[in-house]
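Researcher: Hi, I'm a grad student and pretty new to this. My advisor asked me to get structures for two proteins we've been looking at. I'm not sure of the right format, so I'll just paste the first sequence and hope you can take it from there.
Model: That works fine. Here's the first sequence with its structure tokens right after it:
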Amino acid sequence: MLGYDWPRLHAALNDLPAALLLVAVLFDLASVLLGRPALRVAGFWTLIAGAVGGVLAVISGLQAEEHIAHGEAVHQLMGTHEDLAFVTLGIFAVVVLWRIVRESRMASTERALVLAVSVCGTGVLVATAVYGGKMVFEHAAGIPTAVLQEEMHERSEGHHHHGGDADEPAEHQDRADPATAVPAPDSAAPGGHTHAPGTPPHKD
């Protein structure tokens, strides 16, 4: 599938609809606060685009669930993430249908109610994203076991930076650049004094 498996496809699809739904609610809030109907129109179309994208994200997520190697901790997080995703999609599906049918005939009280439902949907959306993040960043869900083992091996070997980074091992920090190193004292010179680089041999 164009080089994507279901987990990668879900990762590619789930960010945009979440952003669109959030921006749609922000447009609606700004329309109320600023008294700008044009912002409400922008929010309406952004909401529709976000809801369509949300359907694709949920479908790809359900498929990804069957292709992710995981343990019990991820399984529990995955179940919560899935439930929240369905609730989020359900809330915004209701809002979309409500606005499609009633957008041009809503009174102020009804519009405020729709906005309140949208804000609640945004809260569930954020919770859905939090649980998705926990699966990936705390339990490495979606990363094949072989890849994860290789990464763990590389981390155990250590990672060395160059250019004087603070976390560079001491042996690298102590290794002087030959071009800029200050020469060590000439132990062969009488009296223990030193000669500048390039000084011709001479008797002291």
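Researcher: Oh nice, that was easy. Here's the second one.
Model: And its structure:
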Amino acid sequence: MADRPLPARPPFSHRPERRGLIGPFGGRQLLAGAVAIVVAAIVLVIVTTPLGTVGVPGPGDPQATQFALGPAPTNGLRPGDLPPEFTITAPGGAKVPLTDIDGRPVQLADLRGKAVWLNFWASWCPPCQSETPVLRDLAERYRDRGLVVVGISVQETSPANVADYARRYQLGYTIASDSTGEIFRTWRLYGLPTQFFIGPEGAIRSVVPAPMTETGAIAQIGAILPGTSSGAPSSGSPVPSPS
């Protein structure tokens, strides 16, 4: 029997497996992966960076900083100055004494002979809230030694809100509401809280444009109590104000 011819077969050829720069990955794939990693890193930095700037507190004041209501002016009330009296403009235009949350007049002239810690604050101000327990405790502790603490609340929604705050946190010291900010401007301030420590003679001994710690407040109070010297603690500083 005659042999049948074999069917035609394709020619045999072998091509080596194509390999990338690193394993199975080619140059384009590696470049795309690197770009994706860089983009992810940039997004991570953006979403984890705090908004605004955060100041680093100095070694002498590790507490919260003052809440600024405007730019700092150039000049202001300084130690040795006689401070202005607490008067506000009535609806009819007349100047009348500031009153506390119980309706009683608050006048510096009535506090001569006392050590006065004057605290400008607001219930909506976080650094003011942080120092409220310090004022409350030290006002009670030093009351019998001649200290009078006066809190001037600035630009609250209403005097009733100030009274509610004082009642809620059992604040036993004098608190008055400067609803329009008139006293705040008369005293040439720009931030909250701001502290004035006034001696028995009625002059400013020290100004602290920052919230108080208990240790810092005790040092300031000790320097203005009746019978002490008239020198102000070195931690006090002048408050800028318009010239």
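Researcher: Is there anything I should tell my advisor about the second?
Model: You could mention this: Confidence is low (pLDDT under 50) at residues 45-61, 234-238.
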